[in-house]
Amino acid sequence: MKYCAVICEYNPFHSGHAYQLDRAVKETAADGIIALMSGNFVQRAEPAVTDEFLRAGCALRNGADMVIELPVTVSTAAGRDFARGGVAIAASLPDVEFLVMGCEDEEHIRALADIQYEESELFKSVLAAALGAGASYPTAYTTATVEEAAKRGIDRIQASETLKKPNNLLCIEYIKALKAAGSHITPVLIKRKGGGYNDKTLGEGFASAGAIRAAFASNPEAAREKLPPNTADDVIRAVTANPVRTDVYEALVIDAVRRADISSLARLRSVNEGIEYKLKEAAERAVTLGGLYDAVKSKRYTMSRIRRIALECLLDIEKDDRPSPCRVLGVRDDFRYYLSRLGSDFYVSPSDAAGTEKEKRASSLYSLISGREGNAFYSTRLVTV
Question: Given a cut of 80, is residue 162 above it in pLDDT?
């Protein structure tokens, strides 16, 4: 038997995701697909638009055979650590031979991953020079990658365009993580169809998750045709009855930063170089989360990093934190046999799990933000199809 893993958020699960899972089976001939899915807080450093159980059910009804929740310390991490955490979990699963990933354009991804993994002398020198000139780390890293790519015969413009697309960047991180782990898992690139990652309009064909979330905020029914027909009613009902309250989220985050002392802020996973002082000062004055972000953002600290730090403060995610055990959220009836093959790092019932304090906190906070039941983490139900 051979299985295929996909690291995902499904925020929300849409028709493009169903297409990817269908292509995954056809291209790998796998005996099953295991989705490693973010929980109630996602890599964009924000609450998920619907809860994890609903998203797991959508995936199971549209191609996935099992859904395992990524620990919150993984699901909220920056791209590199998000990829490494997901790959480590995939590699620990029995007989997983493929990791499927969605990309915008496949042509140069593997070569660019090699460049970043190898870090040649040219790469290191360009990176150091760019950082010395005041560039942010992401900008300097891209500059170094493009220069080495040009040396290897890849057009600078093409390399730069590839590196501008978030899905491509994640693919590169997945491939690098597989290399670093010495994993036998084969990366399988599947070109996305339809709207791009940053598109905010629904458009024709498959729409991006971002465009669908934007539609949910104003007119959920407008997004119906972009969702699989067998799950559209459930998703639209959920975002209509229990929409994520951004005002509640903002208030919780600002309050968390205000109450934290400087030493606590310094221990947060993404904090260094004394940014905790600026963060604390900004929180005392900010009345909106956007205002806090704008006050702290700089060349060195990108907006995405500031957003992540704020979420880390809310969830109390520190530098030394290790991932909690994984939780199986759901499984198809004809795939239940795989449950018996999972080791002690995976569990079904939260009541039997140790070391899950971060997960419990995240679940409790999400219930306040979304108006859902407050004890969702302790649910013993296993979503089945």
Answer: yes
